[in-house]
């Protein structure tokens, strides 16, 4: 079974600064997807960014980028130019790429990000 | 763009009552997932469906059942409700293939059992 670990329960960043959220995972599979989801106080789960394991290039979405280290099974999220609206709980998630299955998302325990003025 | 629609948004039930949660996936998404998120916890997978057939099962109590209908909407039926069932219930949908298998979540149904 796959596991996802987020070792930082809480992080804080000043507005306009950069912050990196850590995530490690454990799997014996070679093909999979990794995601970061954001959950603001409204508790809506919002997809932030996705990485395919077969791609070496790190995914980027505007101010959000990842550092994917497949050998180390590490998948960190970097938020640049942090904004007040980035304050939320961030979940790292793993999804298997097994043909023929509606593979579920396995979530980490989350990192609560606080953005200060 | 159309999103995943869940209803109701809020639900209050008494112990031992029954609740039905509904989920309408994004058009052309044929796969639906249900998750349960307790206070301060990460979402826990309950069950998934593809083309109206159950695809995977997680930590779903026997008191719960779910199905996916011909129009791809899904319903989660919860019977003999317990206080511990109070949680936020998410539905997510994704395409079976393509789209990078991105799963998009609805806004959730907040169930309170009193």
Give a quick summary of the entry.
With 117 residues, chain A is mainly beta. Chain A has no helices and twelve strands.
Structural notes for this entry:
- Chain A is mostly beta strands and 117 residues long.
- Helices cover 0% and strands 52% of the residues of chain A.
- Chain A contains no helices and 12 strands.
- Chain A has strands spanning 3-5, 10-14, 19-21, 24-26, 32-39, 46-52, 60-61, 64-69, 74-79, 88-96, 105-107, 111-116.
- Chain A is globular, with a radius of gyration of 14 Å.
- Chain A starts with a strand and ends with a strand.
- In chain A, 38% of the residues are buried.
- Chain B is mostly beta strands and 114 residues long.
- Helix content of chain B is 0%, strand content 50%.
- Chain B has no helices and 11 strands.
- Chain B has strands at 5-7, 10-13, 19-24, 31-37, 44-50, 53-57, 64-68, 74-78, 87-94, 104-105, 109-113.
- In chain B, a hairpin with a 2-residue loop joins β5 (44-50) and β6.
- Chain B is globular, with a radius of gyration of 13 Å.
- The relative contact order of chain B is 0.33.
- The model of chain B has no long low-confidence stretch (mean pLDDT 92).
- The chains are: A mainly beta (117), B mainly beta (114).
- At the A-B interface, β5, β6 and β11 of A face β4, β5, β9 and β10 of B.
């Amino acid at each position: 079974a796959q596991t996802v670990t987020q070792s930082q329960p809480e992080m804080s960043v000043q507005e306009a600064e950069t912050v990196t959220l850590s995530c490690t995972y454990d799997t014996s599979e070679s093909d999979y997807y990794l995601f970061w989801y954001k959950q603001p106080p409204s508790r809506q789960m919002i997809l932030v960014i996705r990485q395919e394991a077969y791609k070496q290039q790190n995914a980027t979405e505007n101010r959000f980028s990842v550092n994917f280290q497949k050998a180390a099974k590490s998948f960190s999220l970097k938020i640049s130019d942090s904004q007040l609206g980035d304050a939320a709980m961030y979940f790292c998630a793993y999804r298997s790429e097994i043909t023929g299955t509606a593979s579920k998302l396995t979530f980490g325990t989350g990192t609560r990000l606080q953005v200060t003025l | 763009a159309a999103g995943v629609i869940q209803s109701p948004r809020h639900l209050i039930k008494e112990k031992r009552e029954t609740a039905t949660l509904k989920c309408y996936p994004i058009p052309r998404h044929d796969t639906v997932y249900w998750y349960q998120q307790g206070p301060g916890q990460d979402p826990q997978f309950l069950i998934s469906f593809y083309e109206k057939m159950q695809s995977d099962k997680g930590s779903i109590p026997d008191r719960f059942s779910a199905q996916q209908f011909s129009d791809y909407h899904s319903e989660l039926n919860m019977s003999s409700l317990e206080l511990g069932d109070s949680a936020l219930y998410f539905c997510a949908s994704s395409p079976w293939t393509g789209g990078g298998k991105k799963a998009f979540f609805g806004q959730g149904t907040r169930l309170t059992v009193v």
